[in-house]
Specification:
Blueprint (H helix, E strand, L loop, with lengths): L10 H22 L7 H20 L10 H22 L7 H36 L13 H14 L4 H24 L10 H16 L14 H36 L1
Helix pairs in contact: 1-2, 1-4, 1-6, 2-3, 3-4, 5-6, 5-8, 6-7, 6-8, 7-8
Length: 266
Amino acid sequence: MIGPLRQRSSWPSSLATALIGWIGFALVVPLALGYSGPLAEVFGAALICAVTQTVVLRLGFNPLGLNRSLLAGSAAGAISGAVLAGLCVALFPVVRPHPVIAIVTGVYIGGAVGTFLSYFHRDDRHIEAEALAMRVPIDYGRDAHWLDPFVYGAIAYELALFPQTAEVAICAAVVGMIVGVVAAGVSHFFLSRWNNGLGTLPIAALAGSALGAASGLLFRHYASGMPLPPLVSGALGGALTFLVTASVGRRLALGESGAVAAQKQT
């Protein structure tokens, strides 16, 4: 990532966080429940919610206590998410028949966004304080690449599903982003126990294919818009996402190990 997106607590990063959360789950929830209609209106509603919540939470960041507490971030996010979902019920016909699902989804998404905004703020300030104390340039390390897995997943799923319709293309990007962040978590918290060794790559691909096959069920009503069966396409997308993410994780781990060794020598 470049520019302000390297800092997870920047305004552009906050907007990216909200967009990923709202668009991702606002589409995945209906897909999981069997929705098979056009997605443009759902996408538009999620986009409006993401932008609006970002502005509200960022402008009220300190007064609402997001700079001090993850719980405050979660509460402010959940409340604003519920209000925005309620407005979507009133404004968008596609959402109107499902008010309970919409508001519960809004609470979940909004709460997650608020929590992440608080966490990113706290963690970035900690990194910056350490750099200031050590009188070295600020380096966010792996955290500067926080958006990369979303990109890897979106591209991998677009390649694997080879969409024939706009709905499949949108779904592929959204599902791919979510699988991408799961892959990043597996790489960072599990594969790192084995120093992201070369042998972890096929393990990652195998795990990704299993998760990917499950994600293929989300495309069950759009099978005519892809050349391969949904389960097969999903498995390929998941395997490719996990393989790429694990490979990048291995490269970053090797880089960090080299940097630590160089510091010890000096």
